[in-house]
C-alpha cells in the first residue's frame, strides 16, 4: 500500500523548537519564586504566629509548584509538519477513515450549525469511498434528523462544487461570508450563485421545521421519533445516504449515518463518552475503518486537506516501522475571540506536551486508531505492527472478546478484523447491519463488558477526552500534534459569563475526577507506561480546580492586610523581587499573546478571565468533587450553548487566518446572571474596594501604626491590581441587564464583605 523507498521525501517531519532564551526566562521566574519562598520561610521561623504569612507562604508554594510544572512542560516543544502533496506518489490505496460527530440538544446546538459541520466533513479532500460520516444525536431530535437528511441532499451539490473549485473552507455558512473575486470566471459565479441559493433554501427549510415540527408527522421516516423523549426512547439507526457506487469520485458523497442510542430514565448514559462508544460500535459493524476522526458538532473543518494531513503522520510512521503513535491531535481553534487564551495555552503548553509523549486528547479534531481504542498496548504489537502471538492468544481467545466487547456476534467479528487490520467482508449494503447496530445500542449492551473501563472512550469523568488520552498514554502509546496554518478545525466558545462558568466548572471537576481515580498520573509513572514529564503535564492540567483556593486567598490577602494593618509583602530587596516577578510575568505572557497575533486587549482580558474563572468557577468544582465522594450528587455534563454567528463579513482582531472573520461587537464584555458563580468575584471586589477606601480615608492610621514594618503602600498596590483584574465585576456593578451584576448577588456579596471587614478589623481591637 505504501511505497517505502527511502529515496522519496518524507510525508511528515517532526519539528523541535528549543528556545534557550525562553528556558532562561522560565528558570529566572522559578528562581525568583524560590528565593521569595525561602525568605518568607526564614521570617516565618522567627515570628511563627503570623497567620497572614503562613497563608501567603502556602499560596506562593502552590504557585511555585505550578510554575515548576510549566517549566518542565515547556522545556522541549515540538510538533509535526505534514506534506499531503507527497501522499499521492507514495500511497496507492489510502486507508479508510470513519468520521464521528456528536450532538446532544437541538436547542443548545442549533441543527443548522451541526449541518454545516457535517457538510465540511463530507466535503473533505479525500476519496469519498474511503470515508463515512456518523452523527450521534443524544437529543433524539426529529428536527436534527430532518436537517441532516436535507443536508445530505444539498451535499450532492456542495461536495462536487467544493472539489471542482478547490474550495478551502467547506462549511457553507463560513464560505458564503465572502463574495467571489471579480477575477473569477462567469461560469464560476453562476455556480456560486446557484449553490448559495440552494444553501439558503436548506436554511429556510430547517427554520420552517424548527417553527413547526408537526410538519414531519406525516412522514413515515420519522415514525421512530414519535413518542420518543430525550431521555426515554429506543435506539434509532438511519442510513441517511449510502455511497452505493463505492467509488472515490469527486462527484460522490461519502456514506452518511444518523444514530441515537437507547435511553431510559434513571440509567447512566455516560454523556459524550457513551455516545462515542456507540459510534465506535456502529461504525465497526458498518465500515470498520482503521482510523476515526471525531469532532464536536460546532467544530467544522477549516482546511480541506485535514484527513490527508493526519494520514501523512500515520503512514510515515508505518514506513519507518515506528508504530507507537496512537492518535493525531489538531489544536482546537475558534472563530470567535472568546478563547484567545486557550489558543495561546495550546500553542505553548500544548506544544510543550507534544514534545514529551505527545499532546493530550482534546475531544475534537483528533484522529484515533481503532485498534488502540480497543484497548491494546504498545507491547502487544510485533515488529511489523501486527498483533504479537501472545497478544493474539490473549485477545482473540474464545469467549474473551464477547466478554469484553459484548454479546453481539457481528461486533466480535468486526473487532477481530480491526485487531488484525482487515476490512469487514464486503456487505451488499450498509442497511444489512441495521439490526446488529440496533442491538449494540441497547442500554444494557455494555453491562459487564469493558466498554468505558478499558476499551473505547473512558467513563467516570466529564472530561472524557483527557481521561481517554491518559488511558492511551499510560499504555505506552505516543500521540502527535499538527498545527497547520490556517487552522484545521474551528469552533465556538461561549463568551465570558454564565455559560463559560458552567463549562469551566465541568472541565475542572472532570479533571479532579481523574486526579483522584485509579488512572491518576500520580501513580501512572510508577505503575504504568506514562513518562515522568508527561505525568507532570497531566498533573498541571488536572489540578486546575485545586488552584481556585490559593487564588481566592491570594486575591483577598491584600485587602485583609490593609484592613488588618499588617504586612503582606516583605520589604526591601524582596519587595523588589515581587515587583520584578509581576513585571516579567506580564511581559512574558504579553509576548506570548502578541507573537500569535493577538492584541494587548486580548491579553488583558485573558489575564482577567483566568482570575475570574479560577476564583468563581473552578471553586465550585471542588464542591462537586466533595459531594461526589460523599455520594450526595453526581457530576453532570451540561452541554455548552452554541449560537450560529451572523453571516456578515468583517475583519477581526487576529491577524491570521480565514476568509473574513465574524463580527464580535461585545468582544470582551462580561455577562452576569443570578447564579452563585458571581458571588466570589463580587465579594472580592467589594472587600478590596472597602480596603482601599479605608486606606485613603484613614491614611494616618496606616502610616503611624502599620505593623510588620511596611507602609501599606505595597498592599494598596496589590489591592489596585486585584480590582484591575476583576474589572468586569467593577463595571458590572454599574451596568444594567445581562452585563450588570444582579441586585441579589450584590446584596449577598455586600453582606459577606461587611462580615469580612468586621472580622479583619476585629483582630485589631
Ligand atoms: O451527553 C452528551 C453531552 C455532550 N455531547 C457532545 O459533546 C460535545 C462537546 O460538548 P460541548 O458542550 O461543546 O462541551 P465543551 O466543553 O465545549 O467541549 C470540550 O470539552 C469536552 C469535555 O472535556 C470535550 O468532550 C469536547 O470535545 C471539548 O471540545 C458536543 O458535540 C456535544 O453534542 C454528547 O454527545 N452527549
Ligand atoms: Mn464546545
Describe the fold and architecture:
The protein is an alpha/beta fold and 765 residues long. Helices cover 51% and strands 8% of the residues. It has 27 helices and 13 strands. The chain has helices at residues 20-46, 51-73, 87-90, 111-122, 142-165, 172-175, 186-211, 271-286, 306-319, 340-354, 370-373, 389-396, 400-405, 409-419, 434-439, 464-474, 498-515, 521-527, 532-542, 544-564, 573-595, 600-629, 678-697, 699-705, 713-725, 727-732, 743-762; strands spanning 12-16, 78-82, 97-103, 131-137, 236-241, 255-260, 291-296, 300-301, 325-329, 333-334, 366-369, 478-481, 489-491. The longest helix has 30 residues, at 600-629. The termini are far apart. The model is unreliable at 648-660 and 702-709 (pLDDT under 50). Uridine-5'-diphosphate-glucose is lined by residues 102-104, 109, 136, 138, 271-272, 275, 296-297, 332, 363-364, 463-465, 503, 507, 510, 637, 639-640.
Amino acid at each position: 500500500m505504501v511505497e517505502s523507498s527511502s529515496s522519496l521525501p518524507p510525508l511528515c517531519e517532526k519539528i523541535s523548537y528549543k528556545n534557550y532564551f525562553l528556558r532562561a526566562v522560565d528558570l529566572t521566574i522559578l528562581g525568583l519564586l524560590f528565593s521569595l519562598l525561602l525568605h518568607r520561610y526564614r521570617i516565618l521561623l522567627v515570628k511563627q504566629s503570623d497567620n497572614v504569612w503562613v497563608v501567603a507562604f502556602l499560596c506562593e508554594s502552590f504557585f511555585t509548584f505550578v510554575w515548576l510544572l510549566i517549566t518542565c512542560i515547556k522545556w522541549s516543544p515540538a510538533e509535526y509538519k505534514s506534506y499531503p502533496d507527497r501522499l499521492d506518489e507514495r500511497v496507492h490505496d489510502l486507508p479508510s477513515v470513519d468520521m464521528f460527530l456528536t450532538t446532544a440538544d437541538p436547542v443548545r446546538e442549533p441543527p443548522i450549525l451541526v449541518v454545516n459541520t457535517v457538510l465540511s466533513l463530507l466535503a473533505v479532500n479525500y476519496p469519498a469511498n474511503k470515508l463515512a460520516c456518523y452523527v450521534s444525536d443524544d437529543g433524539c431530535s426529529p428536527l436534527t434528523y430532518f436537517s441532516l437528511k436535507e443536508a445530505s441532499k444539498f451535499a450532492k451539490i456542495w461536495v462536487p462544487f467544493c472539489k471542482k473549485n478547490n474550495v478551502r473552507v467547506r462549511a457553507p455558512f463560513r464560505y458564503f461570508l465572502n463574495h467571489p473575486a471579480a477575477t473569477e470566471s462567469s461560469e464560476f459565479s453562476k455556480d456560486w450563485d446557484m449553490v448559495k441559493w440552494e444553501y439558503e433554501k436548506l436554511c429556510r427549510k430547517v427554520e420552517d421545521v424548527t417553527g413547526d415540527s408537526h410538519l414531519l408527522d406525516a412522514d413515515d421516516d420519522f415514525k421512530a421519533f414519535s413518542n420518543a423523549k430525550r431521555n426515554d426512547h429506543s435506539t434509532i439507526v438511519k442510513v441517511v445516504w449510502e455511497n452505493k457506487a463505492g467509488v472515490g469520485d469527486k462527484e460522490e458523497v461519502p456514506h452518511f449515518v444518523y444514530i441515537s442510542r437507547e435511553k431510559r430514565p434513571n440509567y447512566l448514559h455516560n454523556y459524550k463518552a457513551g455516545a462515542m462508544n456507540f459510534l465506535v460500535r456502529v461504525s465497526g459493524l458498518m465500515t470498520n475503518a482503521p482510523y476515526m476522526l471525531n469532532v464536536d458538532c460546532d467544530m467544522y473543518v477549516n482546511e480541506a486537506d485535514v484527513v490527508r494531513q493526519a494520514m501523512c503522520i500515520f503512514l510515515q510512521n508505518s514506513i519507518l516501522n515506528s508504530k507507537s503513535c496512537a492518535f493525531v491531535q489538531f489544536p482546537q481553534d475558534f472563530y470567535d475571540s472568546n478563547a484567545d487564551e486557550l489558543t495561546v495555552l495550546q500553542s505553548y503548553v500544548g506544544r510543550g506536551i507534544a514534545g514529551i509523549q505527545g499532546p493530550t486528547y482534546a475531544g475534537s479534531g483528533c484522529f484515533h486508531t481503532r485498534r488502540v481504542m480497543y484497548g491494546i498496548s504498545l507491547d502487544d504489537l510485533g515488529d511489523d505492527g501486527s498483533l504479537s502471538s501472545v497478544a493474539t492468544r490473549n485477545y482473540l481467545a474464545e469467549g474473551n472478546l464477547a466478554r469484553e466487547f459484548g454479546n453481539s456476534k457481528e461486533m466480535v467479528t468486526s473487532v477481530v478484523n480491526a485487531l488484525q487490520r482487515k476490512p469487514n467482508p464486503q456487505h451488499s449494503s450498509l442497511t444489512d447491519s441495521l439490526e446488529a447496530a440496533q442491538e449494540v445500542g441497547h442500554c444494557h449492551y455494555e453491562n459487564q463488558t469493558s466498554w468505558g473501563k478499558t476499551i473505547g472512550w473512558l467513563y467516570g469523568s466529564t472530561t472524557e477526552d483527557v481521561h481517554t488520552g491518559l488511558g492511551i498514554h499510560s499504555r505506552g502509546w505516543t500521540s502527535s500534534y499538527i498545527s497547520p496554518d490556517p487552522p484545521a478545525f474551528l469552533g465556538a466558545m461561549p463568551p465570558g459569563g454564565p455559560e463559560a462558568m458552567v463549562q469551566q466548572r465541568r472541565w475542572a471537576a472532570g479533571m479532579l475526577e481523574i486526579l483522584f481515580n485509579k488512572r491518576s498520573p500520580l501513580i501512572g509513572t510508577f505503575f504504568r507506561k506514562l513518562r515522568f514529564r508527561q505525568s507532570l503535564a497531566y498533573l498541571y492540567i488536572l489540578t486546575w480546580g485545586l488552584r481556585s483556593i490559593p487564588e481566592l486567598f491570594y486575591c483577598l490577602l491584600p485587602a485583609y492586610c490593609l484592613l488588618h494593618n499588617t504586612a503582606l509583602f516583605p520589604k526591601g530587596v524582596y519587595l523588589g523581587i515581587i515587583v520584578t516577578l509581576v513585571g516579567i510575568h506580564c511581559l512574558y505572557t504579553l509576548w506570548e499573546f502578541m507573537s500569535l497575533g493577538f492584541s494587548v486587549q486580548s491579553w488583558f482580558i485573558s489575564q482577567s478571565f483566568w482570575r475570574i474563572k479560577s476564583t468563581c468557577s473552578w471553586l465550585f468544582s471542588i464542591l462537586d468533587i466533595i459531594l461526589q465522594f460523599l455520594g450526595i450528587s453526581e457530576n453532570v455534563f451540561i452541554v455548552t450553548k452554541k449560537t450560529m454567528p451572523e453571516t456578515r463579513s468583517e475583519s477581526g482582531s487576529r491577524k491570521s487566518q480565514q476568509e473574513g472573520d465574524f463580527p464580535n461587537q461585545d468582544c470582551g464584555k462580561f455577562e452576569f446572571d443570578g447564579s452563585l458563580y458571581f458571588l466570589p468575584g463580587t465579594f472580592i471586589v467589594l472587600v478590596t474596594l472597602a480596603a482601599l477606601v479605608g486606606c485613603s480615608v484613614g491614611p494616618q492610621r496606616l502610616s503611624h501604626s502599620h505593623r510588620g514594618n511596611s507602609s501599606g503602600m505595597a498592599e494598596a498596590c496589590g489591592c489596585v491590581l486585584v480590582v484591575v483584574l476583576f474589572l468586569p465585576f467593577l463595571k458590572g456593578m454599574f451596568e444594567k441587564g445581562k452585563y450588570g451584576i444582579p441586585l441579589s448577588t450584590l446584596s449577598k456579596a455586600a453582606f459577606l464583605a461587611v462580615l469580612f471587614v468586621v472580622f479583619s478589623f476585629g483582630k485589631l481591637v
